[in-house]
Amino acid sequence: MATYRVTTLVAAPPQRVFAVWTDLDRFSEWIGGVTRVTDRVGPPNQAGSRYTVWFGRMASPTEILAADPPRHIRTRFGNAILKGESDVRFTAEGHGTRIDQEFVTRGFIAGIFGRLFSLGSYKGSFRGELETFRKLVEKETSGQD
Length: 145
Description:
Order of helices and strands: EHHEEEEEEHH
Shape: globular
Radius of gyration: 14 Å
Helix content: 25-40%
């Protein structure tokens, strides 16, 4: 197992940030390689709900382990390349929201790929995806003024 942490500050309120984070139809806008989400069972902001995220032909079944909208969500995900848990906290800070995300990988192969995804801020890295998410939410939020 390996643990990776990323954080950013989004210029938007926690309710808005959490809503976009849990909008399964928008995953492909900020999570690298996502082509679709299927097999949805339950709301995407409630513990016990499930869905499958697809990266081309590779499926990643996902379960929401804990949720406390708009402050926290924890999921378990997994496919042949990357599996583990994601624990995300959304904290009001000033006029925005601090996102603290922790990934814990399971297995040798996931540990290797987790290490690769943790390096740098390229598109598809943990930091790169978080920054893409931040820009997406901020652009939409500034357009609502």
